[in-house]
Amino acid sequence: MKLAALFEKFAGMGMTYDDLLFLPSYADFAPDEVDLGCQLTRKLRLEIPIVSSPMDTVTNARLAIALALQGGLGILHYNYRSIEDQIEEIRKVKRFKNGLVSHPVTLSPDDFIDEAVKIRHERGYSLIPITEDGSSVGKLVGLLTQNDYSRAFHRGSKVFERMVPVEKLKIFTRSELIDPSSHDIDMDRANQLLLESHRPVLLLTDDDGHLEYLVTRSDLEKRETFPRAATDPRTQSLLVGAAVETYPETARERLDALVKAGVDLVVFDTSQGYSKFEIDLVRHAKRTYPDLQVIAGNVVTAAGVRALCEAGADGIRVGMGSGSICTTQDVGCVGRAQGAAVYHCAREARRHGVPILADGGVSRTGHIVCALGLGASCVMMGSMLACTEEAPGEVEYDGGVRMKSYRGMGSMDAMKAGSAVRYSLQKQIVRVPEGVSGRVMVRGPISQWVPYLMAGVRQGLQKLGAQSISGYHTLVEKGEIGVEMKTAAARQEGTVHDVYGFKEI
Q: In the chain, what percentage of residues exceed pLDDT 70?
């Protein structure tokens, strides 16, 4: 059945990704020949259809950098203590240069070796710069490597007892490595110096001895590892987005600050995007900064899409109540099943030439394939990225399983930290949470997890005979790829069943 015919037949029925199944089509190419490039906004294109959710347990500068290196995009949340804190995260991403590590994990001389052991075990870092105050930009006083201590014999010892003092290290200042033509760090020169030093790391400081960057052999190799990184073609800096609240008293101030900091796009972040407040903000943003790419939402109806597109939005974020830790539908009996929301919103957005960003409801690669088939150009993910090593928060152990905290921006914890404005509850004395707090199992680093996800998406598109996302859209619209609605028995049959225990990955 054609997709349009199916939704016409079941009009008024909410359908999720798990309710739908696309039918295979003829393919004359391999999965690795599938192009996953997508249009995130009118003018901004990504190499993979993955955007991180602007949640305080999902996206920080570290995750935004790692995701951009893979070809996706990170959206920094606004739940920081101040606008300046959010701006600093943007600066970290924009300052990043492939091969350079800014704000590395550091310790102070008075910390215990036990801390180094913990960092090595949990985060895999065997090279730890030592600064006077323990901060990542403090005055460099030494270096601690895995060869400088024994886990068995030096527990309880102080770092200064085992570190290599700065006097015995070859240190370079940033000014010594500036390329006169670009006024940036000459990475070829840095690589040469690293090789000549016969050491595993090159430490760069400012003229006053404060740590600025470190360069490792593995980081230099990454320059050739990430050819699809999402970068600004003019400056070669990584792309990054940031969320803006729709509260008029602060939104315009934040918007101005973000633009000055060099953000590449903004997402007006609210659970109800079909509102006068957001429409007015979109108009103001496009009138004040016509070249700034603006993603508006969240909406789940054609009317909401139409209003935001007419206001000037460059991309539309679709979803309400479909996230794994969102309870909006339970609390207010409002929202829409994500499959139906993406389909109807995408139909309207196509009339305006605006891409759709499907937000929520993704817990496996098949959901990404389904969202794209329903008309989305890209998907926004929360829990699927909160499970990575780069996401904010410390790793915890539960029965030997590595876990990280994950909370909805509508949870009471997140609203106390500042996200109440997202739900228009900032002035409410009594607040009913629209999300919960939980934990997710750590899946590993972005550099391993995202390629794994994209391999699954490529395999899905190959079976559908679609060699690109845009080609997939065309085939579905023409009815050349059919779709069926699954029964409860079909859903059970299509997943793992009738085995005693199994291992997913």
A: 91
Q: Is the pLDDT of residue 445 over 70?
A: yes
Q: What is the pTM of this model?
A: 0.78
Give the number of other CB atoms < 10 A from CB of residue 16.
Answer: 16
Query: Domain 3-97+229-491 belongs to what topology?
Result: TIM Barrel (3.20.20)
Indicate which residues carry an active-site annotation.
326, 422
Joined together, the tokens standing for residue 377 give: 């150009």
Is 18:474 a contact under the CB 8 Å cutoff? no
Q: What's the residue count for the chain?
A: 505
CATH topology of domain 101-225: CBS-domain (3.10.580)
Encoding tokens for residue 429?
A: 């004395």
The Cα–Cα gap between 264 and 291 comes to: 10
Asked which of 193-197, 302-306, 423-427 is least confident by mean pLDDT, the reply is 423-427
For the chain, the distance separating the N- and C-terminal CA atoms, rounded to the nearest angstrom, is: 34
Instruction: Supply the mean pLDDT for the chain.
Output: 89
Among residues 341, 403, 412, the alpha carbon closest in space to that of 371 is found at 341
Domain residue spans of the chain = 3-97+229-491, 101-225
Cis, peptide link before residue 298, omega less than 30° from 0: yes
Helices (H), 333-482: 338-352, 365-373, 383-386, 412-417, 446-463, 469-477
Question: Which pLDDT value is given to residue 64?
Answer: 97
Answer whether residue 89 shows pLDDT above 90. Answer: yes
Closest residue by Cα to residue 445 from 99, 122, 102: 122
